[in-house]
Amino acid sequence: AQSVAQPEDQVNVAEGNPLTVKCTYSVSGNPYLFWYVQYPNRGLQFLLKYITGDNLVKGSYGFEAEFNKSQTSFHLKKPSALVSDSALYFCAVRAGGISSGSARQLTFGSGTQLTVLP
Amino acid sequence: DGGITQSPKYLFRKEGQNVTLSCEQNLNHDAMYWYRQDPGQGLRLIYYSQIVNDFQKGDIAEGYSVSREKKESFPLTVTSAQKNPTAFYLCASSSRSGTSGIGEQFFGPGTRLTVL
After folding, report:
1. CA distance A96 to A76
2. Could B105 and A106 be called an inter-chain contact, meaning their C-beta atoms sit closer than 8 Å?
3. How many inter-chain contacts (A to B, CB under 8 Å) are there?
4. A38: Cβ contacts below 8 Å, ≥ 6 apart
5. b/e burial code for range B88-104 (CB count within 10 A of at least 16 → b)
6. Average confidence (pLDDT) over B90-99
7. CA Rg, chain A, in Å?
């Protein structure tokens, strides 16, 4: 079974400082990894994904994530946080390549609430 | 929220009633999904459909039913058998639903269901 762990329920960071939101995963075979952001009472918005290739993936709004196969991690990062980045962030994983049944579906972490302080 | 609409935004249900949540997409996506979101638990998959007239149970399908008669539409019915239906419900869709599909999922704005 595939799973995602977001070890921090809450991350606080000062505006202008770098931010990191952590994610580790477990999946059979190569992973496809995703980050989404959710603002209050809204749906999820796609930020970025890792499928293959360069371990550093760049996405929307200045976010990036680094895939580390040996540590099974996919941490979300941003060099300089903005107050408007405050939101709930979800990491998700699915099995890559040809797979069947529920392995094709995304498994989400429990989310990390990011608060950027002015 | 892309080309996915969900209605209503807020829904109140009395115990013992069935209610249907609407989800429509104009993205020409083959695959559609229903998730339930509870505080601190992330998203849990209820049902998904990879093609018209076909759907599969997700992790928490009990007490829910779906249909996929049109590519654009994937309504979810919360039945009286669902014992704790109060939650935020999210619909999503994605392209390339086949075995090699890797398209990201696009989400609707959600429906908040409250049981009175």
Report:
1. 20
2. yes
3. 61
4. A44, A45, A87, A88, A89, A90, A111
5. bbbbbbbbebeeeebeb
6. 74
7. 14
Contacts of B106 in chain A (CB under 8 A): 46
Pairwise CB contact (< 8 Å): B110 & A105? no
Looking at beta carbons, which residues of chain A come within 8 Å of B49?
A: none
Instruction: Give A44 to chain B, closest Cα distance, Å.
Output: 6
Q: Which tokens belong to A17?
A: 């400082």
Under 8 Å between Cβ of A4 and A108: yes
- Per-residue pLDDT tens digits for B11-67: 998 888 999 999 999 999 989 999 999 987 889 999 999 889 999 999 999 999 999
- B98 pLDDT higher than 70: no
